[in-house]
Amino acid sequence: QDPETLEWFLNEDFDQKVVFFQSMIKVFKKDEMTDSYEGIDGLEHFSPDGVYDIFFKIKDSKAIRKLILLLIERDQNVLYNLLEAVIWDPVTPTLEQAYQWRLNRTSERGIPELQEAMGIYSRLDPETLKLRVLSRQDIPMSQFGFAPRYSVAHLEDTLFFARCLDALENKDRTEALRWELVCLTNKVIVADGFDLSSPDARQRALRKTLGYINIGLELGAEGDLKKGVALLDQVWIQSFFQVGYEQLRQVRSSASAFIKENGAYIEHFISPSDKERLGALAFQFPQVAEVLDDSFNWRDPESLKDIQTVTDFINRWKFYSRFTRQSLGLSDTAFSSLREEYDYPDTQEALNLITLVATTLAQNVLFGQLSCKPLADVAARSFLGMIFLPNIYPGEAKVCDEDRLVAFEEELLKTPMAWTDEDKACLKELLAECSKNLTAQFGSLDLTRPVQWQYVQGLCISVVGQNKPN
């Protein structure tokens, strides 16, 4: 967990890091301004570089010592800036008293300290959820008559967790679960730095908590309702949350690795919406897009279906990256040359993989070659006349000739790429999208009249030697 801990620490506000260090260590340096060495009797000493002398205020220094060593390996300047701030930034007794007062007040209301709250993001493997026999004393029970109902008030009925909770016959355990949900949500609020006074923040934290629990429970029970009910009856729900978090951590790791290796390359042809979706999966807590009418908003994943969807999305883009390089033959240099050859699409952002594939399809239909070379107006119009089947009824949008698409697919499968079954399935989906876009953009055009290429998307067009429309 060291890399995740270090990333979390580096992403925190600098002042927060300073206050954190000041609560844990004293720092001195052997020069006339900083060599007072006061109040260090009995404190454990550590010097990472022979310049700064660090004395631990806490008994167990293992974790903070490890963090300091990780910072030295990652970025010494960050550590040195922090140590200087620990020396020079004042921490007044008033500030310390106010902080302790706040901790006492919040703990009385069920809000945990940060160290306790961060424990929810430790890894837990689904295998640890194997059913085991517990005594009744091991199962948490509510000491109060009624547990808060708001924690499950907005739980979607379709979620696996909701169905298991509804089928749980142990009413005492149901009450305890509601209290566990409240405590766990409070931990999420603290660990994620949400505003405790914001109803929207609490709602977001609750939805995230329920989603992670649902993912972990569904995975642990393997989708079996009876097993899910049994697990709920005998396992603390924080365990399900941690299993859910581990699944999202793997998604983030996969997305981050792909972006690091291929991000600069796919910039040439990724659509703005897919770019946002891919970037959101590399967040500390991956987000998925939720479609709302004509727009979408970001939310935390809440089911194994969400996990499968984003995993398929990442795998699809892994295929697109290899396919564009190996089957279409487009390197970074080739993209630079290509941009100088076409006039439409008229912006780099408008060039996407569908357009590249359709242009290659046109080159194959017209000239029997696999090339993304832009089409002249005459060639493009000729291609559109060939790719669409004749209309049965006048006025209807044309549809693509399936035989030509199949022949094109066969040619692509001959390219030097190690084609797997998953690759072939992705290719079929890509060609289906290409066909759909050709029909939508060009299927209703009257090809006996000039085509205004600036108003349609789907082919790379060169109008060199022609009058380019304004």
Molecular structure report:
The two termini are 57 Å apart. It is globular, with a radius of gyration of 30 Å. The strands form three sheets. It has a three-stranded antiparallel beta sheet with strand order 1-3-2. Strand 4 (288-292) and strand 5 (295-299) form a beta hairpin. It is mainly α. Mean pLDDT is 86; it is low at 131-142. The chain has helices at residues 2-11, 14-24, 62-74, 76-88, 93-108, 114-117, 150-153, 160-167, 171-191, 199-220, 225-234, 237-266, 272-280, 304-326, 332-341, 353-367, 377-387, 402-412, 421-442, and strands at residues 25-29, 44-46, 52-56, 288-292, 295-299, 375-376, 461-462. It is built from 19 helices and seven strands. The chain folds into four domains: 2-91, no CATH class; 114-245, no CATH class; 246-315, no CATH class; 327-462, no CATH class.
Q: What can be said about this structure in brief?
A:
The chain is mostly helical. The protein is 56% helix and 6% strand. A 3-stranded antiparallel sheet has the order 1-3-2. A two-stranded antiparallel ribbon has the order 4-5. Strands 6-7 form a two-stranded parallel ribbon.
